[in-house]
Amino acid sequence: MEERNLTIADIARELGVSKTTVSRAMSGKGRIGEETRKRVQAYIEAHHYSPNVVAKGLAQSKTFNLGLVLPGDYNIVELPFFQKCMMGISRTASAAGYDVLLSMVTAEKITQLERAVTNRKIDGAILTRTLTDDAPMRYLQESGVPFVAIGSTDDARTVQIDNDHRGACSELTGRLLDGGIRSLALIGGREEFIVTKNRLLGFEDAFVKRPDWNGSRQTFLNVDTDREVEKIVEKLLAEQTECIVCMDDFLCGCVLNVMQTRQVAVPGQVQVVSFYDSSLLANRTPSVTSIRFDVEGLGKTACGTLLKMLDGEAAQGRTLLGYEVRMRESTKSFPRSY
Fold first, then answer.
1. HEC profile of 281-331
2. Smallest Cα–Cα separation from 235: which of 290, 286, 187?
3. Which of 49, 83, 227, 302 is spaced 20 to 30 Å from 257 by Cα?
4. What are the tens digits of pLDDT across the range 260-304?
5. Is residue 215 a contact partner of residue 184, using CB atoms and an 8 Å limit?
6. Weakest mean pLDDT among 12-16, 83-87, 166-170, 321-325
């Protein structure tokens, strides 16, 4: 017999046992006599048998696939985040012998995820976005599929891996206030995203910690387009607002484009800050004060946590990863950090 073509059926035939017995001996699960187990293991070692993924999956009732659930309605500027996150997930999964199966979903349509679960194509799943009304999360909970959420949720049943957005945004806002800013405005995205909620809480925390601050502040949420940003910035310029704080890199890029078109000096006339640093802001002039998160590390941590859960280990309910506030040229009178 050619060893390179050896299968579970071949081993069962040679030893005069059933394929189920061979599978149990390989997996270490199920009722099987110790002598038979040793015979199977000895035969496997003597013939240098290494089960392929399919055979191994059958023996252990696993697919060795992880479902990666991505938002089908993502904005093109969100791609760098998802790409880096996917890189961390893929590398961690591959090192553990797993492949990654993508499922695209929206708040209203989760057909791809349902198909992957119904057809038993995945052992567990990773959600890459959390929502205030989260249909994919509810479905996974109801289906009993182990999963980890990248992001935060109020649902205590869900294992969550997230960046410390609230702490980071509070720290950066606090530095602005302590540096003498007396009028500022926050421009944010859609309130249905939990990350928007946490960044807003961090922004507000900075003021709670400084009850003696007596300046003025404004908040604009659910801002989706560059035209909306332009109207808001025109209003803020007319009011001579000192600093514009943007919740993400897309909004910050829109603000800087308006400043450039109107030849408004940054930070000379208006200071600009982003609560999220990315490659989209990397070549901006002036360089933008922002918060740096390890997105690939976020993906690695989420995947590593899910793999431990699949091995039967208990997982911490919520894990918050660190951040780095980077003070750059778009804010004045602050020590720079690059």
1. HCCCCCCCEEEECCHHHHHHHHHHHHHHHHCCCCCCCEEEECCEEECCCCC
2. 187
3. 83
4. 999 999 999 999 999 999 888 888 999 999 999 999 999 999 999
5. yes
6. 12-16
337 belongs to a structural domain = no
Verify that 155 and 275 share a domain, yes or no: no
Q: Considering the domain boundaries, does residue 131 fall inside one?
A: yes
Q: What are the C-alpha distances in Å from 85 to residues 158, 226, 296, 303?
A: 19, 26, 5, 10
- Alpha carbon distances (Å) from 29 to 45, 59, 61: 19, 9, 11
181 with 281, same domain: the answer is yes
> pLDDT digits over 242-263, tens only?
999 999 999 999 999 999 999 9
Q: What is the rounded CA–CA span in Å between residue 325 and residue 241? A: 22
State the pTM of this model. 0.77
Q: 3-state class of 245 per DSSP?
A: strand
Under DSSP, the state recorded for 268 is: T
Domain that holds residue 137: 65-164+295-324
Q: What residues have CB less than 8 Å from 185, skipping those under 6 apart?
A: 217, 218, 219, 220, 232, 236, 241, 243, 244, 245
Both 158 and 233 in one domain: the answer is no
| Cα–Cα distance measured from residue 59 to residue 3, given in angstroms and rounded to the nearest whole number | 19
In a domain, residue 317? The reply is yes
pLDDT, tens only, 5-19: 567 778 888 899 887
Q: What gap in Å lies between CA 274 and CA 186, rounded to an integer?
A: 10
Q: Is residue 311 part of a domain?
A: yes
